[in-house]
Design a protein that fits this description.
globular, seven-stranded mixed beta sheet, alpha+beta, 11 helices, 15 strands
């Protein structure tokens, strides 16, 4: 039986070491997400032979695993979690499996698993250049919103999140955003609030990057992200006052231009099944959908 432990901030280096050669572009393979979302998923980890094992609880209370990643041969690491599930008398469920992961698993252990599509957790990936330029007819509405924002707020400015003052301003803005939106939000947004607070509190320790839009000296939108793989940047958080027309497209475009321009892709994570998020992410016409699957034993 694997000895799983809760994830502490001090575990970042050992977990990052296991993820160092990760090329899957999946946002779950990222220390920040594993650490910041523990209040929702009760995430725990183990490291065996320089290989990361993750077990967590899904929203229905089901214990699930992620694909082990690291130095250990995949057949051996998968066999270990199969045995762990058996010893804990729980069904084996492996989530957050992308198509490339599935190919690797099938090659290592053919005809052992079956899968179903987990559509609410599909991830949206965009060419960074398109998020910056917003070129083409399909993205004309985004350019229109940005132009309107600039016209209505000529004193706007973009600022990178560097100092404690800026991080505190973002935290204050998040509280104000919650006050305006929580009455119509579902419970998951509370976990989103907690995760965002954690990212702001441990911003430097998590080695995150961020940016904000100021209007009349006040932060009205901010975003947080980081390197995910060698060619992919991941956006963890995006908050803006929705009543300000164009605030969301503005922070999206400016953040990509200033912080993600050296990466080929930006992963803007999943929509979690929320229709308003799905519409917002689809409105940017993703260049790639990272389909996620749930694996069980045949």
């Amino acid at each position: 039986m694997i000895q799983f432990n809760s994830i502490q901030l001090s575990d970042k280096k050992v977990i990052d070491d296991c993820l160092a050669e990760n090329t899957f572009r999946a946002c779950d393979f990222c220390f920040t997400n594993l650490f910041a979302w523990q209040s929702k998923f009760r995430t725990s980890f183990a490291i065996i032979q320089q290989t990361l094992f993750i077990r967590y609880q899904d929203p229905e209370g089901q214990l699930c695993y992620m694909m082990p990643i690291g130095k250990m041969p995949l057949e051996k690491s998968l066999s270990i979690i199969i045995e762990d599930a058996r010893e804990n008398n729980i069904p084996l469920v492996i989530k957050a499996i992308t198509r490339r992961m599935w190919i690797c698993i099938e090659k290592s252990m053919p005809d052992v698993f079956q899968y179903t599509h987990d559509v609410d957790n599909d991830e949206y990936i965009y060419l960074t250049e398109r998020l910056i330029s917003l070129s083409g007819k399909k993205l004309q509405p985004k350019r229109n919103h940005i132009n309107r924002f600039k016209a209505e707020h000529p004193d706007w400015s973009y600022v990178p999140l560097i100092t404690e003052i800026e991080l505190q301003e973002c935290s204050d803005m998040l509280d104000e955003w919650e006050d305006l939106n929580i009455s119509k939000a579902e419970k998951t947004l509370r976990f989103d609030y907690i995760a965002t607070k954690i990212m702001l509190q441990y911003f430097n320790e998590l080695q995150l990057v961020g940016g904000a839009i100021r209007v009349n000296g006040k932060i009205v939108a901010f975003t947080i992200g980081e390197r995910l793989t060698g060619d992919t940047f991941v956006t963890h958080v995006e908050k803006a006052f929705g009543e300000m027309n164009g605030a969301y497209p503005m922070i999206n475009q400016q953040f990509a231009e200033h912080e993600a321009h050296s990466y080929l892709y930006v992963n803007r994570e999943e929509d979690m099944g929320f229709e308003y998020l799905r519409q917002a992410k689809r409105s940017y016409y993703p260049d790639m959908m990272l389909e996620e699957r749930i694996l069980t034993l045949k």
